[in-house]
């Protein structure tokens, strides 16, 4: 089975019923087979966004979803070194830590 590395945008869409991509993202997550990997950096970014824009009740529901459905992935020192390399390489893009961590973990 293939593992799937999750990112912020689709997870926000899953939680936000008003998001134009809600239905397709929910369907995608339901159809995926194999582990759903959630980088801890993405968990923080999604949690912050949900709490700020949808409130603590929805934030708690998201955390329940995380514990039930996703496998958390923590950064290793090698990932952080790779993140630094990527930030230097793509300095004009001003990559945020969550985005760069997804790339480093995926590699």
Automatic annotation (TrEMBL):
UniProt-listed Gene3D superfamilies: 5'-nuclease (3.40.50.1010)
Annotated GO MF terms: hydrolase activity; metal ion binding; nuclease activity
Pfam family, one: PIN
Keywords assigned: Hydrolase, Magnesium, Metal-binding, Nuclease
InterPro entries recorded: PIN-like_dom_sf, PIN_dom
SUPFAM superfamilies in alphabetical order: PIN domain-like
Residue ranges of every copy of the PIN domain listed in the record: 5-107
Domain of life (superkingdom): Bacteria
Protein name (Swiss-Prot/TrEMBL): Pilus biogenesis protein
Gene source species: Sphaerimonospora thailandensis
Organism lineage: Bacteria, Bacillati, Actinomycetota, Actinomycetes, Streptosporangiales
């Amino acid at each position: 089975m293939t593992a799937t590395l999750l990112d912020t945008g689709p997870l926000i869409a899953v939680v936000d019923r008003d998001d134009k991509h809600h239905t397709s993202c929910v369907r995608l997550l339901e159809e995926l087979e194999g582990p759903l990997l959630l980088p801890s950096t993405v968990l923080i970014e999604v949690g912050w966004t949900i709490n700020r824009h949808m409130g603590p009740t929805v934030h708690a529901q998201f955390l329940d979803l995380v514990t039930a459905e996703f496998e958390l992935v923590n950064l290793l020192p090698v990932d952080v070194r790779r993140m630094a390399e990527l930030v230097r390489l793509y300095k004009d893009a001003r990559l945020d830590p969550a985005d760069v961590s997804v790339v480093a973990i995926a590699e």
